[in-house]
Amino acid sequence: MALAGAMYSAQALDDSSLDNSSLARDAAWVSTQSERITPRATGLADNLWNLAEMGYQETRSSAAIQDHLTEAGFEIETGIADIPTAFVASYRQGRGGPVIGLLAEMDALPGVSQAAVPEHSPIEGQAAGHACGHHLFGAGSTAAAIMLSRWLEETDTPGEIRLYGTPAEEGGSGKVYMVRAGAFEGTDTVLQWHPSDRNEALPQSTLANRSAKFRFKGVASHAAAAPERGRSALDGVEAMNFMVNMLREHVPDSTRIHYVITDGGGAPNVVPADAEVFYYVRDNTAADLEPVWERVEQIAMAAAQGTGTSVEWEVIHGNHSLLPNQTLNRLLDASMRQFGGIEYSPDELEFAKSLDGLANRPGHEIGDQQTIVEYDPSEAPLSGSTDVGDVSWNVATGGFGTATWVPGTSAHTWQAVAAGGTSIGHKGMLLAAETLTLAGIQLLRDPALVEEAQREFERKRGDDFKYVPLLGDREPPLDYRK
Prior knowledge:
With about 475 residues, the chain is α/β, with parallel strands linked by helices.
């Protein structure tokens, strides 16, 4: 797999109270298993990359992951939360023991079709691409779940592995519906990862996020012959956008607001009777988000009143911020360091250097994939959002990223799609699978680590916390990408 030699961090190991000799011994077992499972894992990743199915439409992708798990002896429960592509795959050994959950995403993004080449080359007839690397996420977590099941069997250790097939992360909040349906009840800890352009297990939070489509209705008329009879729904959208843009001066620095007009009418000489604008609002936590969201709703009503139109809105998705867990993240950091960073072959290095339009973000340079970012316990929030946040407020959750993309690559770009379809993506995915497996073994071997993570989780969540999904009681928007 051309992984570099182990890069140890005594500080991380000391802080997490881990036995270094136990880690090294278990890491050797994981490496052997990883070599055996590599062809199947990379084959699954490539299959998902080629399918490139969007949110809630991942029928073949979900089935492919389930097939791998069924062959490995997992029991599958499908249709979780009334979502056809959501599932939970379980493998149990003996009675009792920790229940360890792994997350597996699978959805692609629209508008970023791309071949696995270092110049922009959309694939004809393909509407989407894995610009966030969820094909690697799904396949890597599946590989880890299978390796953990083999360890349970070989060692006859009591415990259970649950692989959660979670669709529609990109704007569909699939995990939120699964949480709301109780799919994570009885799970002691959750481990998850995400494709990235570097290797790190930092305990960072994310922003809470809610989105909605605001639909204005007016009265159509001939824009030239009878303009006085018309009431433009597009005027309602534009009035709303104008007032929201004024609102930006009067919100916290942490607030992020984005929108796109998804329906503005069909012809300039027809006063539009229908128009729609799609909004995202983000902030540090759900508590910070709520007052800003209320003002956006008030603006929508004011825009309708001022333009003689009406408005209604449909909440599409809502995600809580991510609740970091230092116990689990230190475990993941120490586990990743047993395998080290990623070495490029000459062909991979040539691909990386010739990747057209590479962002080359400061501090993200080719060569960084060989190292692991120093552990930083500050919990500084990221600027993005994820439905993993809702999982983390219900189960102690740890996560990390590996360099599946060329350093300097931004997510949601064709460059990310291109690298994700090559051996560069495979190497990052395999490092993630090995890290998940080694960390999972430590939790299964030592339930005291699970208890430590749970105590931290309860302390940070607080005694008064009550989970309320930010998307309310709406049903999953299974057609939101159609």
